[in-house]
Design brief:
The complex is a heterodimer. Chain A has 2 domains: about 210 residues, no CATH class; about 110 residues, abc type-2 transporter like fold, CATH 3.40.1710.10. In chain A, about 70% of the residues lie in helices and about 5% in strands. Chain A is built from 12 helices and 5 strands. A 4-stranded mixed sheet of chain A has the order 2-1-3-4, with helices on both faces. In chain A, β1, α3 and β2 form a beta-alpha-beta unit. The longest helix of chain A is centred in the middle third of the chain and has 36 residues. The two termini of chain A are about 35 Å apart. Chain B is mainly α. Chain B has 3 domains: about 80 residues, no CATH class; about 200 residues, no CATH class; about 180 residues, no CATH class. Chain B contains 26 helices and 6 strands. In chain B, strands 2-1-3-4 form a 4-stranded mixed sheet. Chain B has a two-stranded antiparallel sheet with strand order 5-6. In chain B, β3 and β4 form a beta hairpin. The relative contact order of chain B is 0.07. About 5% of the residues of chain B have low confidence. The interface between A and B is large, with 119 and 121 residues. β5 of chain A pairs parallel with β4 of chain B.
């Protein structure tokens, strides 16, 4: 029975994982055009309606976009409609040094993925154009001095969105899922005994309530680091570098202990599955929200550990703090158990 | 008073009583805590990316800008220390106007984060000047224009075109005729808003993404972003979360009846089974719809006129089949599982599957036609103010209705003592459903095959979602094999039940007879579904995998003969070799499909 449960939980997580890869691929391709391969980018064609000496046209060309110059909108539109072009861009009329706003009209194919590709391609030259025009016009703003930071490139190009998605969202989500599941599992373990009235039978055996509950807690917690470890291995196989894996496992196990102890306290107090599960999910959401509020919450700690952004002293202190929380909860659990034991004997 | 109403009333008040004073108090306190914490969290950046990168700089002025971004851990250092930043473990250093970073991907990411932060700061400073013409001189106006769909990707057009008897090509040409080459001006084609220069900075804020749920059409280049409908996922969360919660209570309540034979009392009451099931379901359904109504009104605003009311009603009509499916499957799951533990896993598994089905197509809500298989996409479109045609509505919701109703029906069939209060294995209970169905007066393998169609159909749509990200030829091959398998399992399930449960004698004659019945039934159902719903995606390559064979006779023969393979296989080899028989049938079926679709691979 137990191993079947375990296999099921692993299966569900595999399922989530297959979706996460989908998410990774989706996100990377949206935010990081280079990740999609150059072929598709080169494949998009932009019709520019304007003249040879438009500054924006040159910026678009420099940016290696596939641009085609049109003098009439009508021709460009015909080619766009017949799929020879993927987008139309109308260059604004006014001079950069003028007073009025320059409006760039962009026509994109609705409900097609090319729309996204083309927009990503257009963004950079458009921004350059904006900066050039600003270079002329911001002089008219009183007391404005632009900050310029030249980023000295070393050939590496990792977009922060991608990097942060992997280490801030994906990794913590994957390694903590087993802990979340175990917290729900222990509620089922305990309330089931009460609802099926098998707890009396168990208590009639030489095992005490403390032994029964501890056994269940041990089982629920033991599977947490195992699953998280599998996740870390899986990510490593996908060439995602994770530093300090054992510290991470320690943090995850401590979190698992906190959640499982909390749930067992809830389950012992309420003995009803529905109420306990609802309360547990409430507390889970609460804890999740609270972790936004401070640095080194378990999720943030895992992120910082995995990319070596935290020193051993600082991480050690926080692991110690979480261990204290575990001890405190353990004491509460013991008190709850002994309270319940007395009621039973009477 | 009808029977189901009594049960419903009883269910409604009883579930209220489950919360005694103590648990309600604790729940209310936890609710307040959650709200307080969410409010506090919403004031932050809502990301757990605190102190990811460490930056050293020689410029104190710059450090103040960096401190506003929680991702950075920054400090001011001397120039000498800054030049040796990697020794001190910094990812990035800024000396004067130059930023230097190390050779790790983390350093590089820090550089890209720095770039964004500086850009944001620049925009913030420029916005503080009340002079749009000089601070934001360039604007971009985006117009979305629909073109006739054309999936060049797999050059499936010819294949699909041939199979659909050229209906589509005609449509394409009609579309071309509609627009002449005369007199096209930007004004005549633009569907987006025409550009009105913003008057002052206040308006600038309006344009720059304050309206989170609206598709941005006018922006400055810095805020110009590709059409990524990730907001769709937020909708999905918003709408699905309550369903998930309430269905938990629902399945717990069903399970409650089953533990310790509590439900014996209702079963012996003079009520029909379907009244009991309806009575237990309706209260939860009503509560969920109420919650969804509140959410919809929250997003769309309180309706002032008939049109607004219509908008809200159409959003609700798109979410209703989703609610129904969630409930039907959790009902079925609650009857199948033997313990609370199993129930938790079944419900988690089901919600993950359904959420996947709803979420992932919705991600492409504004990008790809296939996204309309998810009702969430319809909701996104409705909220964005577009209209959804009845055809699209049918396409994405009919499978939900069918699967939900048949799951409820099957669940009701085994809502009896033998299945509720015993520890039968799951497969036996499913066989019980089929057996009961087949022993009804009008029940036959023929009808069972027809009923299985929506399940197969949803499985195949699910497969499209899952296989969408595989590279092109493999995704189609996997799709062909897996969908053939789903069809074969559906066709042979009834036959398997007949032989396994001894409803008919195990003879070659019977095997052939049932195979013909089941194959024909499946064929009839499949064509009905194809006519009803597949029109919107028929032009895509995936669509042609599913509908192929409007050439009528051959598919009929195919369905019968592959069904015959598994049926004779079960008959001859015994029901234990069921899997092997189905695999054989799958192989033949996929071989045929590949042959039909060979155009996709060669061209």
């Amino acid at each position: 029975m137990q191993e079947k449960t375990f296999i099921l939980s692993v299966l569900i997580q595999l399922f989530i994982a297959s979706f996460s890869t989908f998410l990774v691929i989706g996100l990377t391709s949206f935010y990081d055009p280079t990740a999609m391969g150059d072929m598709e980018i080169e494949g998009t064609r932009v019709a520019v309606v304007g003249s040879e000496d438009d500054r924006l046209y040159h910026l678009l060309e420099e940016n290696s976009a596939n641009t085609f110059l049109y003098s009439e909108f009508q021709d460009a539109y015909t080619d766009f409609y017949e799929r020879r072009m993927d987008a139309i861009l109308i260059v604004p009329d006014g001079p950069p040094e003028g007073e009025e706003i320059l409006n760039v009209e962009v026509y994109l194919p609705g409900s097609e993925i090319t729309a996204t590709l083309v927009s990503m391609q257009l963004k950079e030259p458009l921004e350059k154009f904006e900066q050039e025009v600003r270079g002329i016009r911001t002089g008219r703003l009183p007391g404005y001095s632009p900050i310029e930071i030249n980023i000295i490139d070393r050939g590496l190009n990792t977009s922060s969105t991608y990097f942060e998605f992997i280490y801030v969202a994906l990794l913590p989500l994957l390694v903590f899922t087993p802990a979340f599941i175990s917290g729900g599992l222990i509620i089922d373990f305990i309330t089931e005994e009460y609802e099926r009235k098998t707890m009396e039978l168990l208590l009639a055996s030489p095992a005490s309530l403390l032994e029964i509950v501890s056994g269940k807690i041990l089982m629920a917690v033991a599977i947490v680091p195992l699953q998280s470890f599998a996740w870390i291995l899986l990510l490593k196989m996908n060439w995602i570098r994770i530093s300090n894996p054992f510290h991470i496992l320690l943090v995850v196990t401590l979190t698992g202990l906190i959640l499982v102890l909390l749930s067992s306290i809830i389950a012992l107090n309420f003995r009803d599955r529905g109420v306990s599960q609802l309360l547990y999910s409430m507390i889970l959401i609460f804890l999740f929200m609270v972790s936004y509020l401070f640095t080194n919450s378990p999720l943030n700690l895992v992120t910082r550990l995995s990319i070596e952004s935290i020193g051993y002293l600082e991480s050690g202190i926080w692991i110690f703090i979480y261990s204290l929380a575990v001890i405190a909860l353990y004491v509460v659990m013991r008190v709850t158990v002994s309270k319940n034991t007395i009621t039973f004997k009477r | 008073m009808p029977g189901w109403f009594t049960i419903a009333k009883w269910e409604f008040f009883r579930s209220g009583l489950k919360f005694d004073a103590r648990s309600s108090a604790v729940l209310i306190i936890s609710m307040i805590l959650v709200i307080a914490a969410s409010y506090a969290a919403s004031l932050t950046e809502m990301s757990m990316n605190q102190k990811m990168y460490s930056i050293s700089t020689t410029e104190p002025g710059l450090q103040q800008i960096l401190e506003n971004d929680q991702r950075f851990e920054s400090r001011v250092v001397s120039e000498y220390e800054a030049s040796r930043f990697y020794i001190y473990g910094d990812d990035l250093t800024i000396i004067g106007n130059n930023a230097y970073f190390g050779d790790t991907s983390k350093s590089s990411a820090a550089g890209s984060a720095l770039e964004n932060t500086i850009k944001e700061y620049r925009e913030a400073v420029l916005t503080s000047y009340n002079d749009v013409n000089n601070s934001h001189p360039v604007w971009v106006t985006v117009h979305d224009i629909e073109r006739p769909q054309n999936f060049q990707l797999l050059s499936a057009e010819e294949t699909a075109g041939k199979l659909e008897a050229g209906a589509e090509e005609k449509q394409d040409r009609a579309g071309e005729d509609e627009y002449g080459n005369e007199g096209i001006t930007p004004e005549s084609v633009s569907q987006g808003p025409s550009f009105i220069p913003p008057g002052d900075v206040a308006e600038l804020d309006d344009h720059n993404g304050n309206s989170f749920f609206e598709r941005q059409t006018i922006s400055t280049p810095t805020h110009f972003s590709p059409p990524i409908p990730f907001t769709a996922i937020l909708y999905a969360f918003l709408f699905i979360f309550p369903i998930y919660f309430v269905s938990q209570f629902y399945s717990t309540s069903i399970m409650d009846e089953r533990t310790n034979k509590k439900g014996e009392l209702i079963l012996v009451a003079p009520l029909r089974r379907r009244d009991i099931v309806a009575g237990k379901t309706v209260p939860y359904l009503v509560v969920t719809i109420l919650i969804e109504t509140i959410i919809t009104i929250h997003i769309l605003g309180v309706p002032g006129d008939i049109e607004a009311l219509q908008g809200i009603l159409s959003v609700l009509s798109a979410i209703f089949p989703v609610v129904l499916l969630f409930f039907a499957l959790s009902f079925f799951g609650a009857i199948l599982s033997r313990s609370f533990k199993e129930l938790t896993f079944t419900s988690v598994f089901l919600s993950v599957v359904i959420s996947g089905y709803l979420f992932f197509p919705a991600m492409f809500a504004n990008i790809h036609a296939i996204s309309s298989i998810s009702p969430i996409t319809l909701i996104v479109r409705l909220i964005e103010g577009e209209t959804v045609s009845l055809e699209t509505y049918m396409f994405s919701t009919i499978p939900f209705y069918f699967v939900a109703l048949s799951a409820l029906a099957f669940g009701t069939l085994i809502f009896r003592e033998e299945d509720l209060f015993t520890q039968k294995p799951i497969s036996d209970k499913i066989l019980d459903c089929f057996e009961l169905f087949l022993s009804y007066r009008y029940g036959s393998v023929f009808l069972l095959s027809i009923i299985s169609i929506p399940f197969v159909y949803m499985t195949q749509l699910m497969l499209i979602v899952m296989l969408f990200n595989l590279p092109a030829p493999y995704s189609v091959i996997a799709m062909i094999v897996l969908s053939a398998m789903a069809e074969e399992i559906a066709k042979s399930a009834g036959i398997y039940t007949v032989f396994k449960r001894g409803l008919a004698k195990r003879s070659l004659k019977n095997a052939v007879r049932y195979a013909v019945l089941s194959g024909t039934g499946f064929f009839v159902g499949e064509k009905a579904v194809a006519v009803l719903t597949l029109a919107p995606i028929a032009s895509s390559a995936f669509g042609s995998v599913m509908t192929m064979g409007t050439l009528l006779l051959i598919p009929l023969l195919l369905h019968i003969s592959t069904a015959m393979l598994s049926s004779v296989g079960i008959c001859r080899l015994g029901s234990r070799r069921y899997l092997a028989a189905v695999l054989l049938a799958t192989t033949v079926h996929s071989a045929y499909n590949m042959f039909i679709l060979r155009g996709i691979f060669s061209g």
